[in-house]
Write a structure and sequence with these properties.
Layout (H helix, E strand, L loop, with lengths): L1 E9 L5 E8 L2 E8 L7 E2 L2 E7 L8 E3 L7 E5 L3 H5 L4 E8 L4 E2 L6 E8 L2
Antiparallel strand pairs: 1-10, 2-8, 3-7, 3-10, 4-9, 5-6, 5-8
């Protein structure tokens, strides 16, 4: 049992797909990295599922704080599971209203919890 690396991407306004295809519900740990002692601006990263039929579910907000990993339980809705859409990937993007005063080299690392 423990955490395994899933993906790391810069946080920009365009959507980026992280890692490989996931099956069913997962627990993720999100860590933010940037080049300053504190984040130079306002805003958050948005994390969502993208399914095989190219649909997305709601975006979870993840605020940039160093040395403060966030845990998120990512659930696949039962209706999608019953329709055969249990596989998904994670998307990440910057909130459209984020105001970052400097190029902080902001990136997000995601780890998955595995039971075995």
């Amino acid at each position: 049992m423990g955490w395994i690396f899933y993906g790391e991407e810069p946080v920009g306004f365009e959507e980026r797909v992280l890692g490989d295809v996931l099956i069913g519900d997962v627990l993720i740990k999100v860590e933010h990295f940037f080049d300053y002692a504190s984040f130079p601006g306002l805003g958050h990263a948005q994390i969502s599922n993208i399914y095989a039929n190219d649909e997305r579910d709601f975006f979870r907000r993840s605020y940039p704080k160093k040395d403060s990993p966030r845990l998120y339980e990512i659930k696949v809705p039962p209706q999608l599971l019953n329709a055969g859409y249990g596989s998904h990937q994670l998307l990440i993007r910057r909130d459209i209203r984020a105001r970052v005063q400097d190029d902080a080299n902001w990136r997000v690392r995601v780890d998955l919890w595995v039971d075995s």
